[in-house]
TrEMBL record, chains A, B:
Annotated Coenzyme F420:L-glutamate ligase-like domain residues: 9-220
The name this protein goes by in its record: Coenzyme F420:L-glutamate ligase
Keyword Membrane: no
Top-rank taxon, per record: Archaea
Gene: cofE
Signal peptide positions on this chain: none
Assigned EC number: 6.3.2.31, 6.3.2.34
Binding locations of a divalent metal cation 1: 113, 150
InterPro entries: F420-0_g-glutamyl_ligase, F420-0_gamma-glut_ligase-dom, F420_ligase_CofE_arc
Function according to Swiss-Prot or TrEMBL: Catalyzes the GTP-dependent successive addition of two or more gamma-linked L-glutamates to the L-lactyl phosphodiester of 7,8-didemethyl-8-hydroxy-5-deazariboflavin (F420-0) to form coenzyme F420-0-glutamyl-glutamate (F420-2) or polyglutamated F420 derivatives.
Length: 253, 253
């Protein structure tokens, strides 16, 4: 398996055709998977925003006021308003905002970025990243699978890692149910989230800073002859951590 | 960046020298990182166990009884006892066991495996996986960095993915603090858990079943000129999900 950064990707602007950006710079093979940082998908889709577009309501002011008193840092209530508008559920309000985005991904600040956003205050995640992946895929020569990623924090572990927020052309999970281990026993681990592992792999090449390598091609890797399915975002019924967070309250004292 | 499975790794037995297994089969270059599934590290370290070695106490019987009545499946209280003995804290008792292992990793069933364990009931995680990584590393020609992985579930997302449980020869996290984005703004994302991203990348090649590729070499990737640190496992003070779980109780009804 090989990972190749697409070379010389320019600064992406609203309206740019990412499939053309890719195919102009690299000869894709039929089995290549293309992994794209959400940042450039958002830019191409014009998901820039300014704080002025999110006049704060009372709920946003309450949240920002509380975060300000906890952290001692100034918090713009319009940012809280933007997060609220991108989300369907608030999992944590303090000491930071953890929400479920409208498309099902759980992330801090609904994945709204303030880095790598020229000329605007904010960059929102793509509205429906799997649809974005499908659109990019349409423009690729072999209908190559596309994974859209974002860097995300996680419980239990320090440090962020890239995960998939959208994908098309391959299942999100490799399902090993019914398959066997080396001793013929049925497998304990049954579902492997390959799109998250692809996201993490690509992020080793892309990086977080000014490296400018938002698009990575994964070559000589295959999903293989397994069942697959697309349910990567847990709903609250199957997520005990979300259930626990519903009953929890940060202690401001 | 390239990922190469070490070819023809045999069934690993207690006492096997994993560094020799690697160097006999692949010519490592100075910058290669070696990623090893914990399964084979455990086998080499003789971390096989049988249920008979874990006579159940009252706590284990209580846990197993409750899991049995919730799931309707038979649960051996000696397995619960094994999990207790490998752990420092129980984060969840039902509907499955989520614990902190003695070395700080949070995982289901303390990472005890029942797959790929010939001739025994159980395979425990290495006692101190970072020390295991250091020992393997000593036998590698260039003191190559070593990452020991395990497949692990996560909150918010379906499907498992490999994460690092131990590492040596490189920092666990790449620290971007003080670095800048493409517009000269200080970065929002500050800490990238590269050992987890390496684990995920390698697992795409290793797989979960009977593929037999537990050792993967990562070539032409560099940690780069960044600060780094090794705190990957959160302690409870910085982990609000763990705090929330302390106050939460699964509803058996
Ligand atoms: N060439 C190019 N690189 C970009 C652009 N925007 C971001 N990047 C790079 O893409 C990578 C990922 O950026 P990041 O802000 O971490 O994206 P996110 O993880 O999707 O939120 C980094 O290497 C950035 O330098 C762009 O418009 N053009
Ligand atoms: N060659 C070889 N492969 C093994 C051995 N044990 C496990 N594997 C393979 O290593 C990979 C990872 O195994 P898995 O049980 O998922 O390990 P874990 O994720 O570390 O718990 C799979 O491809 C297995 O087939 C062994 O002793 N020898
Ligand atoms: Mn982002
Ligand atoms: Mn990023
Ligand atoms: Mn395991
Ligand atoms: Mn595994």
């Amino acid at each position: 398996m090989e990972l190749l950064a697409v070379p010389d990707v320019p600064e992406i602007r609203e309206g740019d055709d990412l499939a053309a950006v890719i195919t102009d710079r690299i000869d894709l093979r039929p089995d290549d998977v293309v992994v794209v940082a959400s940042t450039v998908v958002s830019k191409a889709e014009g998901r820039f925003a300014d704080l002025a577009e999110f006049p704060d309501g009372p709920r946003a002011r309450e949240i920002a006021g509380r975060l300000e008193s906890i952290t001692g840092d100034e918090k713009d209530p319009r940012f809280a308003q933007a997060v609220l508008e991108e989300s369907t559920e608030l999992l944590m309000e303090a000491p930071f905002l953890l929400t479920e985005t409208k498309f099902g991904h759980v992330g801090v600040n609904a994945g709204i970025d303030r880095s790598n956003v020229p000329g605007h205050d904010l960059l929102l995640l793509p509205e429906r990243p799997s649809e974005s992946a499908a659109r990019i895929r349409e423009g690729l020569p072999h209908g190559n699978p596309v994974v859209v990623t974002d860097t995300s924090g996680r419980p239990f572990r320090h440090g962020q890692a890239a995960v998939a927020v959208g994908w098309d052309g391959m299942p999100g999970n490799r399902d090993w149910r019914g398959e066997h281990d080396r001793d013929g026993r049925e497998l304990g681990v049954t579902v492997q989230c390959v799109v998250d592992e692809l996201a993490g792999a690509a992020n080793l090449v892309a990086g977080e800073g000014d490296g400018g390598k938002p698009i990575v091609v994964v070559r000589d890797w295959a999903f293989g002859d397994h069942d697959g399915h697309d349910s990567v975002f847990r709903d609250v019924d199957s997520d005990f951590v979300r259930q626990a967070l519903r009953g929890w309250e940060f202690d401001d004292a």
